């Protein structure tokens, strides 16, 4: 059973395991352990671990570099969330337009209008419609959007028009509507974002996960996607591949997908803040140069970050 160590003991344990912590400001080191936590520090040091040698798992890894990596991840998450929100707002706007144009003001509430009936039978469709309306009504009751509480914008059941209803959905709820929709609906949306139907569904599914990580203090820089999004030529030219020529789907893929979709919304979007975070993450660490550090986060090389 793990021991309950004091913060001073946690610091000593990191030193014993090979992490370089200077004696310059022990109080400051303790403060970092108190605020960031021992296991969070271990998590951000994970890519630099070595095979255990005499109890050591870090080969001269600097404590200060690990702490910097934690804060760079935090800052990157905040700025990436801003870019993803651009995608969310635009996709919701176009989804509401497509559903409203095809099925009228409240037609989207009848799930059988837009669901892919080749994948869902009548029972599944009815079940989805029940839960969709139930959850949407709960969202309407909680939302601070004043228009969603005006009687003229609601039907007899208190459910909102398509433009309001889609707007107050979460990213995940929006994604699952698109994922379950008829091919013709997804085709209309993907055309707006200059990608294929399959790419749009794949990329939005990935961004749904990434958005949750960004919003809930997750670890973005170490993320290795288990469900791999579709890779087009532009993405392929910027990311790292393994020895079997399989794409390694990490932060590099996430950044490129976000960039591709945002570009269709706002071609003048400023990427300098995100790019600076990525460049800082490539600071030479534990003897690894900038290209090696870029590969750790899923980019082909450091030049792929400079060229964003």
Description:
It is a single chain. Helix content is 57%, strand content 3%. Helix 4 (63-103) packs antiparallel against helix 12 (272-281), helix 7 (171-180) packs antiparallel against helix 9 (197-215) and helix 8 (183-192) crosses helix 9 (197-215). The longest helix has 41 residues, at 63-103. Strands 1-2 form a two-stranded antiparallel sheet. With 308 residues, it is mainly α.
Task: Give the gist of this structure.
Helix content is 57%, strand content 3%.
Strands, helices and their partners?
Layout: H1 7-16, H2 26-36, H3 38-45, E1 49-53, E2 56-58, H4 63-103, H5 122-142, H6 162-167, H7 171-180, H8 183-192, H9 197-215, H10 233-236, H11 251-265, H12 272-281, H13 290-296, H14 302-306
Helix pairs in contact: 1-2, 3-4, 4-8, 4-9, 4-11, 4-12, 7-9, 8-9
Q: What overall geometry do the principal axes of the alpha carbons give?
A: elongated
- For the secondary structure, the number of strands is 2
The whole-number mean of residue pLDDT values reads 95
- Major beta sheet, specifics? 2 strands, antiparallel
Percentage of helical residues? 55-70%
Evaluate the radius of gyration.
23 Å
- Percentage of residues in DSSP E strands: under 5%
Structural class from helices and strands?
mainly alpha
Uncertain parts: none
Termini separation comes to: 47 Å
Q: What is the element string, with H for helices and E for strands?
A: HHHEEHHHHHHHHHHH
List keywords for this structure.
two-stranded antiparallel sheet; 308 residues; mainly alpha; 2 strands; single chain
């Amino acid at each position: 059973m793990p021991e309950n160590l004091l913060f001073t003991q946690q610091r000593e344990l990191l030193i014993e395991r090979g992490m370089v912590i200077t004696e310059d400001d022990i109080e400051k080191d303790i403060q970092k352990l108190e605020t960031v936590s021992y296991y969070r520090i271990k998590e951000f040091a994970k890519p630099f671990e070595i095979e255990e040698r005499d109890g050591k798992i870090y080969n001269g890894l600097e404590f200060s570099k690990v702490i910097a990596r934690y804060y760079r991840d935090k800052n990157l998450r905040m700025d990436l969330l801003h870019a993803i929100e651009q995608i969310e707002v635009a996709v919701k706007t176009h989804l509401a337009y497509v559903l409203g144009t095809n099925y009228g003001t409240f037609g989207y509430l009848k799930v059988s209008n837009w669901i892919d009936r080749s994948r869902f039978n009548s029972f599944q469709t009815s079940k989805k419609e029940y839960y969709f309306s139930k959850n949407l009504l709960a969202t309407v009751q909680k939302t601070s959007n004043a228009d969603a509480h005006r009687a003229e914008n609601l039907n007899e059941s208190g459910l909102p028009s398509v433009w309001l209803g889609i707007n107050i959905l979460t990213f995940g709820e929006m994604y699952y509507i698109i994922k379950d929709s008829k091919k013709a609906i997804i085709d209309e949306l993907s055309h707006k974002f200059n990608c294929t139907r399959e790419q749009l569904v794949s990329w939005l599914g990935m961004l749904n996960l990434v958005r949750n990580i960004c919003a809930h203090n997750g670890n973005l820089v170490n993320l290795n996607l288990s469900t791999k999004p579709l890779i087009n030529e532009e993405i392929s030219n910027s990311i790292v591949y393994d020895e079997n020529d399989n794409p390694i789907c990490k932060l590099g893929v996430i950044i490129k997908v976000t960039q591709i979709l945002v570009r269709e919304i706002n071609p003048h979007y400023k990427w300098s803040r995100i790019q600076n975070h990525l460049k800082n993450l490539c600071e030479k660490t534990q003897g690894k140069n900038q290209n090696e550090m870029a590969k750790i986060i899923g980019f082909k090389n450091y030049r792929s970050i400079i060229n964003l």
